[in-house]
Design brief:
It is a single chain. The chain has helices spanning 14-25, 51-58, 63-69, 106-118, 164-169, 235-240, 243-252, 297-316, 325-349, 354-367, 410-414, 442-448, 473-481; strands at 7-10, 30-33, 48-50, 75-80, 83-89, 101-103, 123-126, 131-137, 140-145, 148-152, 155-157, 174-190, 198-203, 212-218, 222-229, 257-272, 276-277, 280-282, 288-289, 404-405, 408-409, 418-422, 435-439, 454-458, 464-469. By secondary structure, it is of the alpha+beta class. The strands form 6 sheets. Strands 5-4-13-14-15-12-16-19 form an 8-stranded mixed beta sheet. Strands 7-2-1-11-18-17 form a 6-stranded mixed beta sheet. The longest helix is centred in the C-terminal third of the chain and has 25 residues, at 325-349. It is globular, with a radius of gyration of 23 Å.
């Protein structure tokens, strides 16, 4: 049992909360620091929670509550002017207990995670505690605050885009660009029964010509609407002149509505040049910023948290060594993929050249009558977990498909330590850490692609790290726990 100093988590948003909860699940104490005096809920912000993110939250007791409160949207429709170009209907959840997507505002997600933290004695939350210095030392780090300094074996910095101290501590630049175009975001409460289970994306509607509008359903008859707006947009003037009301009425008609929250954003595409070095790891918006089209920000940040937590926990328990060194490689790879995808989306939504605008108009106009042109439309490719390995084996590096054996979910077993999967019984080697072995029934093995004589080694974040013959299992498990050895 680990009995050393707590890990310090900087930032008490969803990524920091998830990190602390996951570490507590591994019996690792944390101190969570946040400069705010208290939580101040404001607007929807990140609203789209993907199935695998819900699954991570389920491992700390919050996934079911978040899924049940959220809106499960079933259809994503895309329009050009008055024409519906295509729609995507999401499949049933299949073997997963969670739907593909739910919408629930970040503020409510934070409240539900706070409830889990309140039941976790290993988590010490310290509001009103600004970090004034962060330095690495042999075997740990020093965190300076106005309320005293902390010595810690690891820091996970989830401090958001302004986490300059943490980025300096790992020697990272925050490279990328900002998009000049602005977006107006409003949460409105209104009864719109024909849209309560649909995401709608509009290119060039007559009520926002030359620009986009995105509309998402949220709980309690609330909708988040994102308008691309002209440079120099002034929200105060929009309200004062009645233009905001007219803007909303073009969508809701003469129905009664209430504006719950409203703000203006500019989107950034940035990634830290390193996401971890020594005893400091960066996660969430502290490490990467992406445009929201595709819901890749928070979902990717939660995956950062899980990757960081199991590595830190295994090292502190003495179950592995040199594990955190791979965090930067894996999660920066995921961040770069997200940046590439969202940058392509933004370049289609908001072209940066005359040639880009010409291409966009031509594709959209052709797509009205030519189904073949619709594949060129980019309104945001939705988030999915990153594959960590380019192995020719299709399972290696990917997250384990969500199936159960004898009523027990394989992902839940994996998140208890290491998991070995084979068609035939296999003995788990004695490597010090929790390690389970499961014989997979023939039908499921066929569905998974688990070969005869093959053993899959599954990591504590439910990603398959290797597929090897039986006689290589012990050596492969040891190399998983000590990759530099």
């Amino acid at each position: 049992m680990y009995d050393g100093p707590p890990v310090v988590v900087v930032g008490n948003g969803p990524v920091g909360q998830t990190t602390a909860l996951l570490l507590a699940r591994w019996s690792i104490p944390t101190i969570v620091l946040d400069a705010q005096e208290r939580r101040t809920p404001a607007g929807s912000r990140s609203i789209c929670q993907q199935r695998d993110t819900l699954d991570i939250w389920d491992s700390v007791g919050a996934g079911r509550a978040i899924a049940d409160e959220g809106v499960t949207w079933r259809v994503a429709r895309t329009y050009f002017r008055e024409h519906e170009l295509f729609h995507v209907a999401f499949a049933d959840s299949g073997s997963s207990p969670f739907p593909p997507w739910v919408n629930l505002g970040q503020a409510r997600v934070e409240q539900l995670l706070d409830e889990r933290i309140a039941d976790a004695p290993l988590i010490d939350v310290r509001w009103g505690t600004s970090v004034t210095g962060l330095t690495q030392e042999p075997g740990g780090a020093r965190v300076e605050t106005a309320r005293g300094d902390l010595e810690t074996p690891y820091v996970v910095a989830c401090a958001g885009p302004h986490g300059d101290l943490a980025r300096r501590a790992v020697g990272a630049e925050f490279e990328g660009r900002a998009f000049e175009d602005q977006f107006l975001i409003c949460d409105i409460r209104c009864e719109l029964p024909d849209r309560e289970l649909e995401r709608r994306f509009y290119f060039d509607p007559e009520w926002n010509p030359g620009r986009q509008v995105l509309m998402h359903p949220c709980p309690d008859s609330t909708y988040r609407i994102d308008w691309q707006v002209a440079p120099g947009f002034d929200l105060d003037r929009e309200r004062a002149t009645g233009d905001l009301d007219r803007r909303i009425r073009r969508i809701v008609g003469d129905r009664d509505y209430e504006v719950v929250w409203c703000t203006v954003y500019r989107f950034h595409s940035r990634c830290a040049t390193t996401m971890g070095a020594g005893r400091v790891l960066l996660a969430g918006d502290c490490a990467h910023l992406v445009a929201p089209f595709g819901a890749r920000g928070l979902n990717s940040g939660v995956a950062d948290a899980e990757n960081a937590a199991w590595r830190i926990a295994f090292e502190l328990h003495g179950w592995g060594r040199d594990l955190t060194a791979a965090y930067d490689v894996e999660r920066r790879g995921a961040a770069r993929e997200n940046l590439a995808i969202t940058t392509r989306t933004m370049d289609f939504l908001v072209p940066q050249s005359d040639a880009g605008w010409t291409h966009r108009r031509a594709v959209l106009e052709r797509a009205v009558t030519d189904p073949g042109a619709r594949a060129q439309i980019d309104s945001g490719r939705l988030y999915a977990p990153f594959r960590y390995d380019d192995s020719p084996h299709p399972a290696v590096g990917a997250i384990l498909p969500d199936h159960a054996v004898d009523g027990v979910r394989l992902r839940a077993l994996a998140r208890r330590g290491l998991l070995l999967l084979a068609r035939e019984p296999v003995e788990a080697p004695d490597v010090g850490c929790p390690c389970a072995a499961v014989a997979v029934p023939e039908g499921l093995a066929d569905e998974l692609g688990l070969g005869a004589g093959e053993v899959w080694v599954v990591r504590p974040d439910a990603h398959v790290s290797a597929a090897v013959p039986h006689d290589q299992v012990a050596a492969t498990v040891r190399s998983t726990l000590a990759p530099a050895g």
